[in-house]
Amino acid sequence: MSASDEEHMAQALALARRGLGLTWPSPSVGSIVVAPSGEIVSRGWTASGGRPHAEAIALDRARARARGATLYVTLEPCAHEGGRGLACADVIAAAQPARAVVALRDPDPRTSGQGLERLAAAGIEVVEGVLAAEAASVALGHLLRVTEERPAVTLKLALGADGLMPRGDGAPVWITGPEARAHGHLLRARNDAILVGRGTILADNPSLTCRLPGMGCRSPVRVVLDRRLRTPPEAHLFDDMMVPVWLICAADEDHPNAEALQERCAEIVPAAVDAHGMLGIRDALETLASRGITRVLVEGGPSVARAFLDADLIDEAVIYQGPNPAGADGLMPFVNEGLDRLTGSGHFTQIHARSFGPDRMTWWRRMRTCSPALSAA
C-alpha cells in the first residue's frame, strides 16, 4: 500500500458516494483505472438500480488501456453471475490489470473472498484493506443487510434552541432555516427509504420527497409505520404517485382502510408485531431489507425516535438545532427524555459538525459496531 493507493481509493470512495440512494438492492461502489504512469484512465460508479457495476463501467471505458494498469475498487468484486452479465471478478480477470486494490471484503457469501481469489488466480496482484474503515462507512447499508438482515439507520432530528421539537398542527412547522432544510433533503436523496410513523403524517402532513432543484427523481421510498392502516387517503403523501409509498401494518389483522389506500397507490406491507401488539422495529427493518432497502432515514416523531433508540437500532444521528426555542408546546425528542439520551449515553461519538447560517448541525455515529464485517475493518 502506498500514499498514491490511498489517494486513488479516496477518489473511488467519492465516486461511490454519488450513487448512495440510487443503487439498492446493490451497494454503491466506486472504481478507478490508473495507468502505470499515474494517469487516471477511467472512472466508474454503480449505475442506478445496481447494474452495471462500478468495475465493469470503469473497465469498459478504459478498454485496452486497462491491461497492465491498477484497478481501484471500494468493495470486493462480485464472484457470482447475475442475470445481466458476468461476475465482476471474471470481467476484471479478462481485462488483465496488473494490480487490483480493494478497500473492503464483501461479506456476501456468494462473494466473500472468492472475488479476490479469482483475481489472484488470474495473476493479478491483489492489495486489500486500503481505506477499509471509510469504505465500510459508505457500504454500511449493504454490510448490515448481509450480516444482520437489516438496513443501516440514520435518525434525523430538528430541534429548537431549547432542545425541543416543534409540534405540528396539520402542516410542517420549521425550526431551522432553508439552508439546513436543504441539507436535510440531501440526506433524503442519499437514502433508499425515509421512515415515519402515522403520527407524523397526522401532525405535519408531509410529502417526504426530495425537493432540491433537479433532484426530485432521487426521492426515496416513503415508509409509514401504521399498525392499523389508519393513514388518511387524502394525505399529501399520496399527491406524488411517482414516488412509492409503503405502509407497514400488522400482519394477520383486518384492515378495512386497505382498499382506499391501495387506490391511492400505497403498497401494503404486513410485518410482525411484538408481545404488546405493537409493530416490532427490528421486524419492520428486516421486512425492508428483504425488499432490498439498505439505507433508511428515520424522520419520525418522538415515539418513533425512542423506539429505534430503545431497540439499539440507530447507526448514525443527524441533529439540526435552530437558534430559537420550540416553545412551551414543544416535544421532547424521545417522548419523555431529552437529546442527552443519545448524545450523553456514551454509545455515540460526534464525527462532524457544521453551521448553516444560525443553525447548527451535528453528526453522531454509534461507537459500538454491530456487524462483524465492520469490526474487521
Summary keywords:
alpha/beta; 9-stranded mixed β-sheet; Cytidine Deaminase, domain 2
Explain the overall architecture.
By secondary structure, the protein is an alpha/beta fold. The protein folds into two domains: 3-138, Cytidine Deaminase, domain 2 (3-Layer(aba) Sandwich), CATH 3.40.140; 144-376, 3-Layer(aba) Sandwich (Dihydrofolate Reductase, subunit A), CATH 3.40.430.10. The chain is built from 13 helices and 14 strands. The chain has helices spanning 3-18, 54-62, 88-95, 114-121, 132-138, 140-147, 178-189, 198-204, 258-263, 281-290, 302-310, 340-343, 372-376; strands at 30-34, 40-45, 70-73, 99-102, 125-128, 152-159, 193-197, 221-225, 245-250, 266-271, 295-298, 316-321, 348-356, 359-366. β13 and β14 (359-366) form a beta hairpin. α3 packs parallel to α4 (114-121). The protein is globular, with a radius of gyration of 22 Å. The two termini are 16 Å apart.
**Structural class assignment:** alpha/beta
CATH architecture annotation of the largest domain: 3-Layer(aba) Sandwich
The CATH class label of the largest domain is Alpha Beta
Q: What is the number of strand segments?
A: 14
Examine the coordinates and then state which fold CATH places here, giving the name of the CATH topology of the largest domain: Dihydrofolate Reductase, subunit A
Q: What percent of residues are in strands? A: 15-25%
How would you sum up the global shape? globular
- Residues in helix, %: 25-40%
Q: Count up the domains.
A: 2
Which superfamily, in CATH terms, is the homologous superfamily of the largest domain?
Dihydrofolate Reductase, subunit A
What is the number of helical segments per DSSP (H or I, 4+ residues)?
13
Radius of gyration: 22 Å
Largest sheet: 9 strands, mixed
In angstroms, what separates the terminal alpha carbons? 16 Å
